[in-house]
Amino acid sequence: MLCRIGNVQRCAAGLKPLLGIVASRQKHTLPDLPYDYGALEPHISAEIMQLHHSKHHATYVNNLNVTEEKYQEALAKGDVTTQVALQAALKFNGGGHINHTIFWTNLSPNGGGEPEGELMKVIQRDFGSFEKMKEKMSAATVAVQGSGWGWLGFDKENGRLRIAACANQDPLQGTTGLIPLLGIDVWEHAYYLQYKNVRPDYVKAIWNIINWENINERFKAAKK
Ligand SMILES: [Fe+2]
Q1: CATH architecture of 43-223
Q2: pLDDT tens across 92-149, in order?
Q3: What residues does each domain of the chain span?
Q4: CA distances (Å), 209 to each of 143, 159, 204, in order?
């Protein structure tokens, strides 16, 4: 379970944020999409969106709730062995819920174009230009081996933007410390029905529906 930042840095899985989730006994719920299933066509088909949201994301939510329940029971019993054994399921299903909840808001039928204001200035400062950032993030995302995510994240320690790639459902902040701004899901369930095995075409198309207002809001909140 490795998570890469840029080309070189690797880090071990961090479970702290997921362990934080289990402190709450509230059940997690599937968030509504802020648009219709067909609203992102022609870039992402309604069939993909419906399955992705109502089946895949819903399964992460259900399994996260089941895992948390087992974790609470193990906590109550002082059963550390079971707590440890549940951490992979917590990471996978908790990460799946966290990642997809961000992803839906990163997209919009009115998206595309370029960011404005300070976010654009910081992208230009950290990557040279908006186009270079897109190229770097696209390349890192397409290169994910198997299932995973490409990310634009904010490094709070030095105030800079970073590109990262995470395997499976490893959540960006829990595994790298970067605050997630924009995620691109490259699990096959996100594109295969429409793009088949041509992941680069899906990644190229998704820039047409990126919700830069949402990413700008996330950037402002991350800086605080
Ligand atoms: Fe997904």
Answers
A1: 3-Layer(bab) Sandwich (3.55)
A2: 999 999 999 999 999 999 999 999 999 999 999 999 999 999 999 999 999 999 999 9
A3: 43-223
A4: 21, 26, 10
Average pLDDT taken over every residue of the chain = 91
Distance from the alpha carbon of residue 81 to the mean position of ligand 1, in angstroms: 30
Cα–Cα–Cα angle for 54, 105, 29, rounded to 5 degrees: 45
The reply to whether 97 sits in an annotated binding site is no
d(CA 56, ligand 1 centre) in Å = 7
Cα distances from 62 to residues 21, 107, 167, in angstroms, run 14, 24, 21
Strand partners, 165: 4, 150
Q: Does residue 25 carry a pLDDT above 80? A: no
Does the annotation list 52 as a binding residue? yes
Query: Per-residue pLDDT for 1 more than 70?
Result: no
The 3-state secondary structure of 119-176 reads HHHHHHHHHCCHHHHHHHHHHHHHCCCCCEEEEEEEECCCCEEEEEEEECCCCHHHHH
